[in-house]
Amino acid sequence: MKMESSELIPSLPEELSLECLTRLPYSTHRLASAVCRRWRQLLQSQDFYYQRKNSGHTHKVACLVQAEKESDGGKKPGESPSYRLSVFDPVGAVWDRIDPVPGYPNGLPLFCQLAGCKGKLVVMGGWDPDSYKPVTDVFVYDFGMRRWRKGKDLPAKMSFFGCGSAEGRVYVAGGHDQNKNALRTGWVYDLRRDEWSELTQLSQERDECEGVVIGDEFWVISGYNTENQGAFDGSADAYGFESGQWKRVEGVWEAGRYPRSNVGVGKDGRIFSWSKLDSVVRAGLCGIALGDRVLVTGSEYQGAPSGFYLAEIGEGQKVKLEKINVPDEFSGFVQSGCCVEI
């Protein structure tokens, strides 16, 4: 029987071998993992991800919940569209699809939420596309291995909650329950342990809020309570990762303005609305920060074709939109999205 070499790459020093492997594109990791047991253990470890990140060999992609075009198997006019997961890699402007999540071959759960966490994509909740009933499913996609695994279910049936991620954890808060009652609850999902833990409650109910991580805080912006559906509030709750406590912040959002997929953060940490950038993206808008650039999708008015733009955030929240060409099969409406560093 042939013995496996203890060296990462025969005849090369360990440090140089590791440097070579960190430079492999993530798309080759699945194939490289089949070389030997040691490569597989290394490439699938969190330490290797951090090694790539610290050496500057990761990059950020946009993952999108995107409606299928009718010509690509979408439903007929008048029917609710099916949604798939698309990926836009700004390095080379490459578009791709992710395989369907397990158990949903004909489309994602409607209004499911996405979060990027330690190089992986987390898909949470939503509504069953056939029954329109809320689901608690959680799925985790590994880009290097190009495969899904089932995560621990959401601790409750909730929809339209805010979410964000930091340091291997996904934070969710607000939304509404299966009876349409707005929620004040919050939870955190530890990706490595595959466990959910409950947070202390928000200062108020926040249905259809938006979640975003700013520095060392998870912000839950706007939303409304059960008695005032659609009356979006101008305040936010911010959860400190170190303190483990929420603080209420007033006047961070324009009261009455829809926040979901619409919250931007300037270089100075101030919150603003993507829909105020330009008249070409005032309807059906979604903005996804990709480091120094942002992928912005939207249209001039409801029902108009979606446009796709890359934007650079300057000082004082100055942003310049640059229209990008998109293959027809990836030109459908973008419902939501997130950034994943892979």
Mind explaining what this structure looks like?
This protein is mainly beta and 342 residues long. The protein has three domains: 14-54, no CATH class; 59-97 and 272-337, no CATH class; 99-260, Neuraminidase (6 Propeller). The chain has four helices and 24 strands. The chain has helices at 14-22, 29-32, 37-43, 46-54; strands at residues 60-67, 83-89, 94-97, 113-117, 120-124, 138-142, 147-150, 158-159, 162-166, 169-173, 176-177, 186-190, 195-198, 210-214, 217-221, 236-240, 246-249, 263-265, 271-273, 283-290, 293-299, 307-313, 319-323, 334-341. The longest helix is centred in the N-terminal third of the chain and has 9 residues, at 14-22. The protein is globular. The model has no long low-confidence stretch (mean pLDDT 89). InterPro entries: F-box-like_dom_sf, F-box_dom, Kelch-typ_b-propeller, Kelch_1, KMD1-4. Residues 6-53 form the F-box domain. One of its GO terms (biological process) is negative regulation of cytokinin-activated signaling pathway. This is F-box domain-containing protein.
Q: Topology of this protein?
A:
Elements: H1 14-22, H2 29-32, H3 37-43, H4 46-54, E1 60-67, E2 83-89, E3 94-97, E4 113-117, E5 120-124, E6 138-142, E7 147-150, E8 158-159, E9 162-166, E10 169-173, E11 176-177, E12 186-190, E13 195-198, E14 210-214, E15 217-221, E16 236-240, E17 246-249, E18 263-265, E19 271-273, E20 283-290, E21 293-299, E22 307-313, E23 319-323, E24 334-341
Antiparallel strand pairs: 1-2, 1-24, 2-3, 4-5, 5-6, 6-7, 8-11, 9-10, 10-12, 12-13, 14-15, 15-16, 16-17, 18-19, 20-21, 21-22, 22-23
